[in-house]
Design goal:
By secondary structure, the protein is α+β, with helices and mostly antiparallel strands. It has helices at residues 8-33, 43-54, 56-86, 90-97, 101-104, 106-130, 181-188, 192-219, 227-261; strands at 135-141, 147-153, 168-169, 173-179. The chain contains 9 helices and 4 strands; from the N terminus they run H-H-H-H-H-H-E-E-E-E-H-H-H. The longest helix is centred in the C-terminal third of the chain and has 35 residues, at 227-261. The N and C termini lie far apart (63 Å).
Length: 263
């Protein structure tokens, strides 16, 4: 039985849709990760991490995301391989046609990104899900707003279902208890080789998204020689080629510098 995926255009359309879904995920993921820069002893990020770990909708969305990553990788690799086979003398043709660096290296950049995702999930997703992460307790004075934290505390505040009670109020203070995911991030980026790897991976991501974002809309039928095409090109260049990769790369650099000067 033939399906749309049996045809080249069908595979390209599905690849484009998955790619745009992943672009949307990158925006949401970066917004959440920017909480790491909040000057609140890691409270905002730990709250965000706790929400992401316990929300049912997020858990369902995560499985869709895992499928999208694998599908985009497999189908993208298949299309790249077929294109390579069909153009064995491709370098001279590409030079004559002035094809961009990002377009020429989509497969290589995509492979680097996939390796990055595996390393990233091993460093964070696996630790957040299955690691023995210490707890941290935050105490905020209601009157002054002063926030203090106590690391390596025991999760003693439990309800009958075994879940953490995250907000306990009295006349003087509010107490929050979370797994210290912020500390995991900080400890991980003490490794300079990992910081360099993340930076190099974001360069590959920039190259991949520069071509991929615009190409996805072209595959879906958008003409690039009109106003809408120019707007898509500008969004792709500004957000996905520049701001998002820089945003992600700034996190390991920031923690490495902070850790270096607070030894």
């Amino acid at each position: 039985m033939n399906t749309i995926l049996n045809y080249s255009i069908g595979r390209k359309i599905s690849l484009s849709l998955m790619g745009l879904f992943l672009c949307l995920f990158l925006i949401i993921h970066l917004i959440g990760n920017l909480k790491l820069f909040n000057n609140d002893l890691g409270l905002s990020f730990n709250q965000y991490s706790d929400f992401m770990s316990n929300n049912v909708f997020i858990k369902i969305s995560s499985w869709i995301l895992y499928f999208a990553i694998l599908y985009h990788t497999i189908i993208g690799g298949y299309i790249t391989y077929n294109n390579y086979k069909s153009r064995p003398i491709k370098y001279l043709i590409q030079k004559k046609n002035n094809i961009s660096i990002s377009s020429r290296n989509m497969g290589i950049a995509g492979s680097i990104i996939f390796i990055f995702i595996v390393v990233h999930m091993a460093n964070f997703w696996w630790k957040f899900k299955f690691g023995n992460i210490p707890y941290i307790q935050y105490v905020r004075d209601i009157q002054s707003g002063y926030l203090a934290s106590y690391e390596d505390v025991l999760p003693v505040l439990m309800n009958k279902n075994g879940h953490l009670i995250q907000n306990i109020s009295n006349n003087y203070e509010i107490i929050y208890t979370y797994k210290n995911s912020y500390r995991v991030v900080s400890e991980t980026f003490k490794n300079p080789f990992l910081v360099i790897f993340y930076g190099a991976s974001m360069i590959a991501m920039s190259l991949h998204l520069l071509h991929g974002f615009k190409s996805a809309f072209m595959t879906l039928g958008l003409k690039i020689n009109n106003l809408y095409g120019h707007i898509i090109h500008l969004i792709g260049w500004l957000f996905f080629g520049l701001l998002i990769p820089i945003g992600f790369a700034s996190i390991p650099i920031y923690f490495y510098i902070v850790n270096f000067f607070t030894k």
